[in-house]
Specification:
Largest sheet: none
Number of helices: 3
Shape: flat
Helix content: over 70%
Structural class: mainly alpha
Radius of gyration: 15 Å
Length: 63
Amino acid sequence: MAAFFTALGLVLVIEGLALALAPSRMEELVAFLASLRPETRRRIGLGAVAAGVGIVALVRAFS
């Protein structure tokens, strides 16, 4: 459970830094994502999930 909260905390730190350091770029990114078709956004999301699962699997395999 500690690993879950550590991961969640890291996600919040990264997201918070992006919003704090480049708020206008975040607005542009949201506008860009809104202009994409839902199918494309879904593929991007699934790709991100796959990358995340792969990273977790690699970390667990080598630690």
